[in-house]
Amino acid sequence: MATRTPVRPARAESVGAAQTTAAHPAWSALKSAVAELRSLQSADGSIDASVHDLARARRLVAEVSGAIGELAVVLPHDADYLAAVVRDLARWTEGGFGVPDFLDALVAFRPELDRTDGREHLVVFPMYTQNGNPDRNFEAVLTRVVWPDWIAGLEATAYDNPMFVPLAFTDFTAGYDTDSAVLFPETIAVREVPRFTWGGIFCDREAARFRRVTAAAAECLRLDLPDDARTLVDRQEVAQDAFVLWDLVHDRTHMRGHLPFDPFMVKQRMPFWMYALEELRCDLTAFREAVRLQAQGVAAARHVQYAILCDRLFRFPVTGGRVRNYDGLGGQLMFAYLHRADVLRWHDGTLTLDWARVPDAVIALGDEVDELYRKGVNRSRVAHWLAAYDLVGSYVLPHPGSTWAKGPDALPLDGPAKDLVDAVMADEFPLNMFYEGLKRRLADVIASTRGIVGGSDR
Hints:
Shape: globular
Order of helices and strands: HHHHHEEHEEEHHHHHHEEHHHH
Radius of gyration: 23 Å
Strand order of the largest sheet: 1-2-3-5-4
Helix content: 40-55%
Distance between the termini: 25 Å
Number of strands: 7
Strand content: 5-15%
Structural class: alpha+beta
């Protein structure tokens, strides 16, 4: 279990090309103009003429458009998309700076069609950033695609996912100087929702914050990491590869398996533990596949297992607030399951894991979640929510004041489903004493990962 995996050399050529583009004077001008333009925008992306000088806004849009034109020469593969951005900017200006509509530019942006490793993209959109800026302000981001040959081979032969685009940051505006690690088309201001064809995940940020938090958690918990897990924590390139493979399998799992008829990817209001179980299911599937790929000799597969385990156990439960924190709940469930199985132990102020038994235990948890889903097709929606609550609550204790914990007789089952969702407490499954302590000890470390990128020193 503790074998050391060979480390591939860094992709110096692609990174060097990205750094050259970031050094272009037009990028500096674009970034500055976008930053000032953002300061004029309201939450919906419009500019209020009663508050701000629209002549100034027009000058800034002209600067943004000019800089984009210069960078389009450097990035010819993005030329059509960048031309559409300039046209959408012009229409926004001519319309008096109302709510922006960048549908034409969004439709023209197709990064999934050419996932060449190191391919650089300039992304300019009015958008909110998940776990970042909730307003639809302009962002300018320089990114590069992370698509090594071994991942391309796995995607082509075993894990088809044509919409998946793993990315790394080169530079960005304020909305990404946050905890956001995704670039999703649904965040962009448009007049109508198109058919989405891609989704971007910043694997360098995921890897960097994983490394920092896991290192700090292992130190304060006196956890003895195996050699290959320590390599993962010490080497950004190794961690980044692990996250690309994790994300590849996780992302496609949302539309595979024993799903309800109405897929979870469709926006609908439900108790937050349903989202917790869905995200956890996808991670547990990725873990199971990583165990299988490790047996086939895929170098990154063992690292994927460590990444899922440590991110879920250490970072997820203590990151963010306690209001419907579904990712945190998934981590709490994994901790409780492994603790009950005596695979994880907390004794004498030291955390220990029986590393040899971890794979089978995590896969067993995945089996329980899969069985919940398999039986779900024969349940009503409310009955499925209740069954899911029973599964989570059997491992993670609900809040003592919970209405849901009292069972069906205490719930408003004769009303609309929204009444059941409203009966859920903001923190239905509080942190246990272990996590309360870990949250205090890791608070500064978690905060320090805001805006982190792959080149950040650990």
